[in-house]
Amino acid sequence: MDIRHIHYLTPNEANNLLSLVRNPRHRLLVMLMIDCGLRVSECISLRFANFDFKEKLLHVKSLKKQTKNLVRSIPISTRLYQELSNFLNNRKGILATDYLFPNTQKNNYHISRFAVNKMLSRLQFRHPVTAVNLHPHTLRHTFATQHLSAGTPLHNIKEMLGHVSLNTTLIYAHIPTEQLRKNVEQVTNPKSAFRIFLDRCVKTILGKRSVPINLHFRNTGIPTVGRNNILKAILENVNKGINTCIIGTTGIGKSHLLNLVKDDTSLHILALDNTADIKPSLAQLLLYILKTDQKGVYDFLYPGWDYNKTLAHISRDTVQHIANRILEITTPKHYILWIDNVDGISTKAVKVLEIFKDHFTILTSARTVAINRSSFLWNFDIIRLKELSRDDAMKLIQAHSAGLEVQDYNLFRNHVYEQTNGNPRAIQEIIERYRKEPNITNAVIRQVRHTGALSEIDCSFAIIIFLAAVACLRYLNHEVSNASFRVIGGIGLMMLFISRYIFRFTRKTHI
After folding, report:
1. Do residues 240 and 178 share a domain?
2. Is there a single domain that holds both residue 107 and residue 248?
3. DSSP 54
4. How confident is the model over 106-127, as pLDDT tens digits?
5. DSSP-assigned letters across all residues of 330-382
6. Residues 284, 288, 291, 293, CA torsion sign
7. For the chain: N or C, fewer Cβ within 10 A?
8. Is 247 a member of any domain?
9. Among residues 397, 361, 395, 60, which one has the least CA distance to residue 234?
10. Contact 9/130 with Cβ under 8 angstroms?
11. What is the CATH classification number for the domain harbouring 118?
12. What are the Cα distances from residue 67, in Å, to 38, 58, 61, 64, 110?
């Protein structure tokens, strides 16, 4: 195609056009076609899932019949990224399937080509920046001709435009993205090296920074951070047949470790779901053993019975009888009795576990266990989980925040750690809270808080020291002859005497 027969804008005309567009939505439309070379049909049908804001790439699937399976990736220029950031600044609750330019009159649909053509025609009529016809393909041609003038290789231009070569296959996967990005910046931001250095200095001094766009729709697996040694100790206990109970506060990672053991297919796991109401759980456990490992016994005792009928029959027995039947049909230490938690364990469940603790290898967890119900734990190895160290917490924050775009990452990490005190669940929750924000500026970083994991402070010792100091005023009265010191000191001494009875109410009652 002869470039002289293509309608396009010069760099000055393109910049003037962008300066005249006041509507943020219209300005973003124009910039997408100028900086990315999109067809109008591709531009209006963009969804948020098309953007990879972390890598600053736009993934576009061609809508042409002959190239309908072609997906090309186009680097997002700095000015387009900033325009997107401004456009999304006040958007809330964005989903991956949402259109970038939704139709306000038709739900679940995007704007029409006619609306874009009408907008460009009206713009040219009011502000004639060029003598050529201003239509969407003019902007697409502008993208191609400016890259051609800037020295971008022709095959790279074809790749970004989504054209099909008659002689070669698509080679985009072999084109370095960084080289394309340099070409895009050269076209959209043609500045000298000195001007670029000067702009950086101004931004550093005045604190003007691009607002990051936080939209990331990929899921990443979260590794076990800071718990590998503990997990190793738990698995060693399980292999040795040692009963184990993991003790820790809410969100510390107890269930995560238990589930890792439960997912090990090499182990024979029996799951006891509920220790508050133990009888239904025991009945289901007995039925599970009969239907899996004792199929012959099940067929003999309950020939032709369905699951519900058998469960109802078993549930008529007492808790003690059901527990004894489980012991009769299982081999000692063959199974691992997996219990998610024993926080609200009942007295009946305590008696059952006292029977089971020498027959099964029990693995469980708890936030706290009342001392008057802890007798079943006497031969357990108690593993106490603490908050993650600062280094491990930082690693977990980095893992959970994969794909998150923030203005100041160091500020972000430090703030998350200070708010969560190294609690894994709190770290996950506060970062998920950040993911709901389209733009995570420094102000947003400081605004989000999480108080659930902040550690408690025991002030008992400080109170005793204070009361002792007040009591000393009684004896200071002899030196200064101040009667009020004697009264205040007497009150302090009295409070110090009865403080042991006051602190009795705060005595620890759970392990």
Report:
1. no
2. no
3. T
4. 777 899 999 998 888 888 877 7
5. S-TTTSEEEES--TT--HHHHHHHHHHTTTSEEEEEES--BGGG-GGGTT-EE
6. negative
7. N
8. yes
9. 361
10. yes
11. 1.10.443.10
12. 14, 17, 9, 5, 22
**Pair 213, 439: CB distance under 8 Å:** yes
The reply to whether 157 and 239 lie within a common domain is: no
Rounded to the nearest integer, the mean pLDDT of the chain is 80
How far apart, in whole angstroms, are the C-alpha atoms of residue 227 and residue 215? 30
Number of domains comprising the chain: 3
Residue 378, both tokens: 């006497």
Based on the fold, state whether residues 174 and 265 are members of the same structural domain: no
- Do 359 and 242 lie in one domain? The reply is yes
Return the SS3 of 222: coil
Q: What is the pLDDT of residues 301-313, one digit of tens each?
A: 888 888 888 889 8
486-501: pLDDT as tens digits: 777 778 778 777 776 6
Mark whether 345 and 474 lie in a shared domain: no
What range does the domain containing 174 cover? 3-192
Collapse the DSSP code of 71 into the 3-class scheme (helix H, G, I; strand E, B; otherwise coil) and give the result.
strand
Boundary (domain end) residue, out of 384, 404, 427: 384
On whether residue 32 sits in a domain, the answer given is yes
pLDDT at 76 over 80: yes
* Assigned token pair, 352: 């059952």
**Strand-by-strand arrangement of the 57-61 sheet:** 51-52, 57-61, 71-75
Strands in 101-259 per DSSP E = 244-247
Grade residue 509 by pLDDT with cuts at 50, 70 and 90: very low
φ, ψ dihedrals at 366, nearest 5°: -165, 150
Mark whether 183 and 235 lie in a shared domain.
no
Query: What are the backbone dihedrals phi and psi of residue 272, each rounded to the nearest 5 degrees, phi first?
Result: -105, 110
Percent of the chain at pLDDT exceeding 70 = 78
- Asked if 190 and 151 count as a contact pair (C-beta separation under 8 A), the reply is no
User: Do residue 178 and residue 289 come from a single domain?
Assistant: no
Position 40, amino acid: V
On whether the pTM is more than 0.70, the answer is: no
The C-alpha atoms of residue 261 and residue 265 are separated, in whole angstroms, by: 9
Q: Is residue 407 part of a domain?
A: no
Rg (CA), the chain: 35
Give residue 61's identity as a one-letter amino acid code.
K
CATH code at position 377 = 3.40.50
Answer yes or no: are the C-beta atoms of 385 and 425 closer than 8 Å. no
* Within a domain: 413: no
